[in-house]
Write a structure and sequence with these properties.
The complex is a heterodimer of chains A (362) and B (625). Chain A is α+β, with helices and mostly antiparallel strands and 362 residues long. Helix content of chain A is 21%, strand content 34%. Chain A starts with a strand and ends with a strand. Classes of the chains: A alpha+beta (362), B mainly alpha (625). Chains A and B meet through strand 6 and helix 4 of A and helix 1, helix 24 and helix 25 of B.
C-alpha cells in the first residue's frame, strides 16, 4: 500500500524555477488532484512523481521507498496523458499487454486474462483486436487507462486526461475513472486546470500557482475557506473587494472599501503564510489593507446589510438563477439572483458571515 | 527493506546495466568508425597543410592566399592587406572577371557567362560557377514548385516523388549523360548534323553544360523543398488576407512569399555548397579548363603533391563548413514558420480544353522545357550506348562482354564491377544504417553535446571526397602505427565500404532524426512508465514508428554507395575493387559507346535498387535529403 510524499522538492530548468520547495503527501488509496492555471507547475509535479523530471533538490517517496533517483520504469507508476499516447503500431490488446512484458500480472494471472480483465474493467471488452486509430477519443482514453493499470502500479498518475474530450463525454469518463479508482483502491494523482473538475472528483486537492502550493484540502474546505487571494479567485467564482480595516471587534471587522463600510464576519485567512486559521480577528489591526471575498450567490437584494449599488452590464439566464454582471465603482461584480433585474441598476447586500478576509497586507 | 524493494533494486541494476551499455556500445562503435575512417585519415592529410619541412607553419596558406592563380586580383589585396589605396582597383578587377558574353551555337546567339579568367582565380571561378548553377537551379526549380503546389493533375504525386531521383543518380552518370547529349559525337550533334550543322555545345560552351548538369541535380532539390513549404501554407491564411481586402496577387506576395523564402534560401544555400564542392561533373565535362578547387585538389593529389592538395582542401572545407553552419542555423530558424500544415486547395490543371488559359500554356511550355532538360541526358546515354556514328548497334555491349572475357588483370571488367558495386552497397547498408540511427538517437536527445554531435556528423558532407580518399589511402590502406607492436591497416573492399559508409550515414541521420524528434514524447514516456528501459523503448516504440525514415535512409545510403566516385577512384586503384562508376570513367575513351553502355547498366542497376527499396518502404517520396 502506497503513500506518496514530496519533501521540499524544487525543479529548475536553467534560470526558470518550475517547482519551488513543494511538499505534499498523498494518502494510500486517495484521489488527489493538482489544480492550477497553465504553467503553474502542476504537470511538472506529476512528471516529477513519475520520474520524467529529476528534482534539483528534495526527495520523492513511495511509502518508505526513496524513488528520487529511480528511473520511471522502476517506479511502478501508471501514467495516462491528455493525448492518450496509445502506441499506433500495436493493437488495443498489445497496448494493454505492453507493460506486462516487464512485470508479471498480479495474482498470477496469464497475460491474456489480465488484458481481458482490464479491458472489461473500462468497458472496452471485445475491442482487443482493434487499431487505436479506429477508436473515438473517449475509447482511446479508456484503453490508455487500462494499459496504465495492467501491470498493477502502486500509483496512478493522470495528466489532464479529459481535456481533449467534449463536455458530456468528459462527465461520463470522469465518473468511470472515479469508479475504477475506488474499485482498485489505487493511490491516484490527477492533474487538471479545470477547478470544477477538481472540486468534483477529488478526495483532496492542491491548488498550485507559480511553482508553489497555495492550499491543500478537501474540496469543500478549499471552496469555503480559500487560503489566499489567488485561491479565492481561482476556485469557484468570487467577488474580491480591496479595502482597509476600519474597526476590529471579537466577532469580526469593518472594512472600508471605496465609499462603503462592509461588516465582515466570515473568517480570516492569509494572515500568516499558508495558515487558514479562521476567526483570528485579533490578528488584524485598524489600517491593515485586506481583500474581502464574497461568492456571487451570497449577494441578494433582500439582504439589508452591506448594500452596494450595481450598474447592470449584462444578464444571463443560467437555469436556476440569473447571472448579473455589474459595475460598482469601476469594479466588476457578479451576482446570482432569483429574478432578472427590471432596470439597469440593482442594489444587493450580503450577510457578514458570507464575507471573508482572504488576504492581509500589513 | 521489503522483499519487493530488494527485488526491485536487483532488477533495476541489471536493467540499467544493459540499458546504459547497449547505447554506449552503439555510440562507441560509431565513434571508433568515424575516428578511424574519417577524422584520423582526414586529419593526417590536413596536417600536411600546416607543416613546412617538418615545422608547423601557415606559410602554405599564405602562399595560396597571395597567389593570383588561386585568388586572382584579390590575391594582391591579401598580399598587402594594408595598402588600402590599391584595394579598390584589385577588387574591381576581381569583380570585373565575372560577367556575361555573347556566344553563338550555329545560327543562334545567346548570352553566356564568361569563362574563367586570371582576374578571378581558381576560388573566384569556383564560386562563380556555383553561383550561376544555384541561380539556374532556382530559376528552373521554382516553377516546378508552383506547379506541384497549386495544380492537381494526374501523376502529380508520382512527379513529386520523382524529384528525388536526380539526386541519387551517380555524378559520373549525369556527367556521361550530358557528355552523350552535348559532346563532340553526342546526340545533339548527331541530330543537328542531319541539317548540315556541326557544332558541339560542350566544345563552344562547356561552362553552360556544366551549369545545366548542376541544375539537373539541384533544381529538383529546390522544387522539392519549396513545394514542401508551399503545401504547408494554410489556405485559410490566404483566404483571411483576401477577405481583409488583399487582391489575389497581393495576398500571394504578403502571405505566401514570406513563408516560401526560407525554403528557397535554404535550398539555394545547399545547392551552392554542393556545386562549390563539385567534382565528377566538372572533371568529365570541363576538364582542367574549367577546373574548380576540388578538381585541382584531385589534380594535385594524383601528382602526389599532397601538401598542396591538403592546403587547398583545408580552405575549401573551411568555406563549405561555414556555409553549412549558416545553412543549419537558417534551417533551424526557418522551421517555425511552416504553419500547422494547413489545408491545401489545388486547382485542377485541365478540367477541359477550354480551361487552357495563358497561365496554363506557360506551365505546359515550362513542362516541355523541363522534360527536355531532365530526359535528354538519360535518353542520350541510352541512345549513345546503342549507336555508333548514328547507326543502331550492339557493339558497345559486345565490348563489355568481350572485356569481361578477355580483360587483362589490370583492366576493369564489367561483371566484377557490378558485383563490387552491389556488394559494397550492401556492406555500406550494414555499417551506415546502425551508425546513422545511433547518431540520430544521440543528437535528437536534449543536452549540451547535441550541437557538437550535429556538427561532427555533418562533416562528411563538407569535407572534400578527394581528401577523404587520399586520407584513407595514406592512413588506413598504407596503415597507421598504433602504440606498441600494433598496426592498423584496412585494405581493399573494407576500405571502400568504410569510405562509402562514412559518406552515406549522414543521409540516414537526416532521414531518421526529424522523424525521431516528431515521435510524441508521451509515447516514449508511457512506455517508460510501463516498465520499458530506454533501449527497450527505442526498440519497441520509437524505431517501429520511424521505420519508414530508416528505410528511406537505407535507400539513400545504398544509392550513395552505388554512385560514390570521389574517394572510390582513389581507393579502388586495383581492378579487383573497381565499381561501376569507376568502370564508366575507365571506358570513357575516344569513342563514347562503351562508357555509355556501362553507364546504362549503372543507370538500370541504380534505378532498380532504388525502386526496390522504395517499394519495400513505400515512403521514399516523402523524405528529406
Amino acid at each position: 500500500m502506497t503513500e506518496l510524499e514530496l519533501d521540499h522538492v524544487t525543479v529548475t530548468y536553467g534560470d526558470t524555477t518550475a517547482l519551488d520547495d513543494v511538499s505534499l503527501s498523498v494518502a494510500d488509496g486517495e484521489f488527489f488532484t493538482l489544480v492550477g492555471p497553465s504553467g503553474c507547475g502542476k504537470t511538472t509535479t506529476l512528471r516529477t512523481i513519475a520520474g520524467f523530471e529529476t528534482p534539483t533538490a528534495g526527495t520523492v517517496r513511495f511509502g518508505d521507498r526513496d524513488v528520487t533517483g529511480t528511473p520511471p520504469e522502476d517506479r511502478g507508476v501508471g501514467v495516462v496523458f491528455q493525448n492518450y499516447a496509445l502506441f499506433p503500431h500495436m493493437t488495443v490488446a498489445e497496448n494493454v499487454a505492453y507493460g506486462l512484458h516487464f512485470a508479471d500480472p498480479p495474482n498470477g494471472q496469464s497475460r491474456d486474462a489480465r488484458v481481458e480483465e482490464l479491458l472489461a474493467l473500462v468497458d472496452m471488452g471485445g475491442f482487443g483486436d482493434r487499431e487505436p486509430g479506429s477508436l473515438s477519443g473517449g475509447q482511446q482514453q479508456r484503453v490508455a487507462l487500462a494499459r496504465a493499470l495492467a501491470p498493477g502500479p502502486d500509483v496512478l498518475l493522470l495528466d489532464e486526461p479529459m481535456s481533449a474530450l467534449d463536455a458530456r463525454l468528459r462527465d461520463d469518463l470522469r465518473r468511470q475513472v472515479k469508479r475504477v479508482q475506488r474499485e482498485l483502491g489505487i493511490t491516484t494523482v490527477y492533474v487538471t486546470h479545470d477547478q470544477e473538475e477538481a472540486l468534483a472528483v477529488s478526495d483532496r486537492l492542491a491548488v498550485v500557482n507559480g511553482g508553489r502550493i497555495e492550499q491543500v484540502g478537501r474540496p469543500e474546505d478549499v471552496y469555503r475557506e480559500p487560503a489566499s487571494r489567488f485561491v479565492a479567485g481561482f476556485v469557484g467564482e468570487n467577488n474580491l473587494f480591496d479595502g482597509t480595516v476600519a474597526a476590529v471587534d471579537p466577532d469580526g471587522v469593518v472594512v472600508h472599501a471605496s465609499d462603503t463600510d462592509f461588516r465582515v464576519a466570515g473568517g480570516v485567512s492569509g494572515a500568516e503564510d499558508g495558515d487558514s486559521a479562521t476567526n483570528a480577528w485579533d490578528a488584524l489591526a485598524v489600517g491593515d489593507r485586506v481583500t474581502v471575498s464574497v461568492r456571487p450567490a451570497a449577494l441578494d437584494p433582500a439582504i439589508s446589510e452591506n448594500r452596494i449599488d450595481l450598474a447592470v452590464d449584462q444578464t444571463a439566464f443560467l437555469g436556476e438563477r440569473i447571472r448579473v454582471d455589474g459595475d460598482w465603482h469601476g469594479q466588476h461584480v457578479v451576482c446570482h439572483l432569483a429574478d432578472r433585474p427590471e432596470t439597469d441598476a440593482v442594489t444587493v447586500g450580503f450577510a457578514p458571515a458570507d464575507a471573508r478576509i482572504v488576504a492581509v497586507d500589513d | 527493506m521489503s522483499d519487493r524493494s530488494v527485488d526491485d533494486a536487483v532488477r533495476a541494476r541489471v536493467r540499467r546495466f544493459v540499458d546504459a551499455h547497449a547505447l554506449t556500445v552503439g555510440v562507441a562503435g560509431t565513434a571508433v568508425v568515424l575516428l578511424l575512417v574519417l577524422y584520423v585519415p582526414v586529419g593526417i592529410v590536413f596536417a600536411e597543410a600546416f607543416s613546412t619541412d617538418g615545422v608547423v607553419s601557415l606559410s602554405r596558406f599564405a602562399d595560396v592566399f597571395t597567389d593570383e592563380f588561386y585568388f586572382g586580383d584579390l590575391a594582391n589585396v591579401l598580399a598587402s592587406p594594408f595598402a588600402f589605396g590599391e584595394h579598390a582597383v584589385a577588387i574591381a578587377g576581381f569583380l570585373g572577371g565575372f560577367g556575361v558574353r555573347i556566344a553563338t551555337l550555329g545560327p543562334v546567339s545567346y548570352p553566356a557567362p564568361v569563362l574563367p579568367t586570371v582576374q578571378t582565380g581558381l576560388f573566384g571561378f569556383t564560386a562563380w560557377q556555383a553561383l550561376l548553377s544555384t541561380a539556374a537551379s532556382v530559376v528552373i526549380g521554382l516553377p516546378a514548385a508552383y506547379v506541384l503546389a497549386t495544380f492537381e493533375f494526374r501523376g502529380r504525386k508520382t512527379l513529386r516523388s520523382i524529384t528525388i531521383l536526380p539526386f541519387v543518380l551517380p555524378g559520373i552518370l549525369v556527367a556521361s549523360g550530358f557528355y552523350a547529349a552535348f559532346g563532340e559525337s553526342g546526340l545533339l550533334n548527331d541530330v543537328v548534323g542531319v541539317v548540315g550543322l556541326h557544332q558541339s555545345l560542350l566544345e563552344t560552351d562547356p561552362l553552360l553544360v556544366v551549369i545545366l548538369a548542376h541544375a539537373f541535380y539541384n533544381a529538383p532539390l529546390v522544387a522539392r523543398v519549396t513545394t514542401g513549404a508551399w503545401e504547408n501554407v494554410d489556405v485559410h491564411m490566404v483566404e483571411t488576407a483576401r477577405s481583409l481586402g488583399a487582391s489575389r496577387r497581393r495576398a500571394f506576395r504578403d502571405v505566401v512569399v514570406p513563408q516560401l523564402l526560407p525554403a528557397i534560401a535554404t535550398s539555394a544555400l545547399l545547392t551552392f555548397i554542393f556545386t562549390f564542392m563539385t567534382f565528377p561533373i566538372v572533371l568529365a565535362l570541363g576538364g582542367l579548363q574549367l577546373a574548380t578547387v576540388e578538381v585541382w585538389v584531385f589534380n594535385a593529389a594524383s601528382n602526389l603533391e599532397i601538401p598542396e592538395a591538403a592546403t587547398l582542401a583545408v580552405i575549401e572545407t573551411a568555406i563549405s563548413l561555414a556555409l553549412t553552419y549558416v545553412y543549419l542555423r537558417y534551417e533551424a530558424g526557418g522551421t517555425g514558420l511552416g504553419g500547422s500544415g494547413g489545408t491545401t486547395d489545388r486547382e485542377r490543371f485541365l478540367p477541359d480544353l477550354r480551361a487552357l488559359d495563358r497561365k496554363r500554356v506557360a506551365v505546359l511550355a515550362y513542362g516541355v522545357l523541363a522534360a527536355v532538360l531532365f530526359l535528354t541526358p538519360l535518353v542520350a546515354l541510352l541512345a549513345e550506348s546503342f549507336t555508333t556514328g548514328g547507326r543502331f548497334t550492339l557493339d558497345n555491349y559486345r565490348f563489355l562482354l568481350e572485356r569481361q572475357r578477355t580483360g587483362a588483370s589490370f583492366q576493369t571488367r564489367p561483371l566484377p564491377a557490378i558485383r563490387n558495386s552491389l556488394a559494397f552497397a550492401g556492406g555500406t547498408l550494414l555499417v551506415a544504417v546502425p551508425m546513422g540511427v545511433v547518431v540520430a538517437v544521440v543528437s535528437s536527445r536534449d543536452g549540451r553535446g547535441r550541437t557538437f554531435v550535429d556538427a561532427l556528423s555533418m562533416l562528411p558532407v563538407a569535407v572534400s571526397g578527394i581528401v577523404f580518399g587520399v586520407g584513407l589511402l595514406t592512413g588506413l590502406v598504407f596503415g597507421i602505427d598504433l602504440p606498441g607492436p600494433y598496426r592498423l591497416q584496412v585494405t581493399g573492399p573494407f576500405a571502400v565500404v568504410a569510405a562509402h559508409a562514412v559518406a552515406a550515414y549522414p543521409f540516414v541521420v537526416r532521414n531518421v532524426k526529424p522523424q525521431l524528434a516528431s515521435v510524441d514524447r508521451t509515447l516514449v514516456e508511457s512506455a517508460r512508465a510501463l516498465g520499458a528501459t530506454r533501449v527497450r523503448t527505442l526498440l519497441d516504440v520509437q524505431l517501429p514508428l520511424v521505420w519508414p525514415g530508416v528505410l528511406a535512409g537505407a535507400a539513400f545510403a545504398f544509392a550513395i554507395s552505388m554512385g560514390e566516385f570521389d574517394s572510390t577512384v582513389i581507393l579502388a586503384s586495383q581492378s579487383d575493387t573497381a565499381t561501376m562508376p569507376i568502370a564508366v570513367e575507365d571506358y570513357l575513351g575516344r569513342t563514347l559507346g562503351p562508357a555509355m553502355a556501362m553507364g546504362s547498366v549503372l543507370l538500370v542497376v541504380t534505378a532498380a535498387s532504388f525502386v526496390a527499396v522504395d517499394r519495400l518502404g513505400g515512403y521514399v517520396g516523402e523524405i528529406q535529403r
